[in-house]
Amino acid sequence: MLALLFCVCFSGLIGRSWAMVFISGGYRVKIYDNQPGQAARAIQEVRKQLEDLQEECMLRGDQSASEQLALLSSHNDLCQALEGAFFVQECVFEEIEAKRSVFQAVESHVGEGVILSSSTSCLLPSNIFSQVQNRKRCIISHPVNPPYYVRLVELVPHPETLVEVVDTTHALMTAVGQAPVRLKKEIDGFALNRVQYAIIAESWRLVKDGVISVKDIDLVMSEGLGMRYAFIGPMETMHLNAPEGLEDYLQRYREGMKRVLNAFGPVPEFSGEAAERINKEMCELIPADQQHLSARRERRDQLLMGLAKLKK
């Protein structure tokens, strides 16, 4: 197999998750971290997660946990870590200068054919890669947290990115079991966060204006929209929700949709008295201490595992 490289500063959650995804596809992965010992500790964390997944019969790929772990190595030296790599996945924290410095350092150690990919969730490729000399091989590969259970990856090209780079990245993500989607051009927030923020904004407005409670607006999604959105998207939903498909749906509901959309309020500030009130209501349901939050995250991941199994 070819070698894949992860540049993982501080060995964070996303870097470890990417490593697990790639080794599940049978690829070698080198984890780099500029803090001595951090990459090695990340591998121990990956080991524990893979062994737990194997016990739950939810391990991805055709190889055992020990066979996948054998594909993983840790490195404190960037040059050594980049040797033999053909795909570099940057996973440093969401700060533009930090990401720029990583790619400047990486570019000086790799050949022209190596793809440079960032895990950013909303920073534009034209900004992240602005100091890279060869921007034709640069791309955003934005995962959804946690990537091991939620397969979507947004591929966002730099304006100069070659089509071949997007094709190769799409094929690679597909090969390791992810579900890549192509954005044809860069846009602030990409696709996922633009849709997500629209849902958050209207949910926030409804709670703020006293229309519905925090608990019940979450049920609107988890027991309503989310049930079908786990398997089909909004376009197919429209297509299936009228006897004769999408055109019929638009004829029936176009005016109603426009009326409701025009009634939406301004973008919320997400601060002040409303934020304090909504936070209080949320914390009454799930206290914001580590014990309760960790338990709910574990529950989330267990449910996502079950849903991933069902979607197979």
Q: How are the elements arranged and paired?
A:
Blueprint: E1 3-7, H1 13-24, E2 28-32, H2 38-55, H3 65-69, E3 72-75, H4 78-82, E4 85-90, H5 96-107, E5 115-118, H6 125-128, E6 138-143, E7 152-157, H7 163-175, E8 179-182, H8 192-208, H9 214-229, H10 234-240, H11 246-262, H12 272-285, H13 290-311
Parallel strand pairs: 1-2, 1-4, 2-3, 4-5, 5-6, 7-8
Antiparallel strand pairs: 6-7
What portion of the residues fall into strands of 2 or more residues? 5-15%
List low-pLDDT spans: none
Secondary structure: number of strands: 8
Mean pLDDT over the full residue set: 93
Order of helices and strands: EHEHHEHEHEHEEHEHHHHHH
Question: How many structural domains?
Answer: 2
Count of alpha and pi helical runs: 13
What is the alpha-carbon Rg in Å? Answer: 21 Å
CATH architecture of the largest domain: 3-Layer(aba) Sandwich
Give the overall shape.
globular
Counting helices, strands and paired strands, the structural category is alpha/beta
The CATH class name of the largest domain reads Alpha Beta
* Major beta sheet, strand line-up: 3-2-1-4-5-6-7-8
Major beta sheet summary = 8 strands, mixed
CATH fold name of the largest domain: Rossmann fold
From the structure provided, what is the oligomeric state, counting identical versus distinct chains? single chain
First and last CA, distance = 25 Å
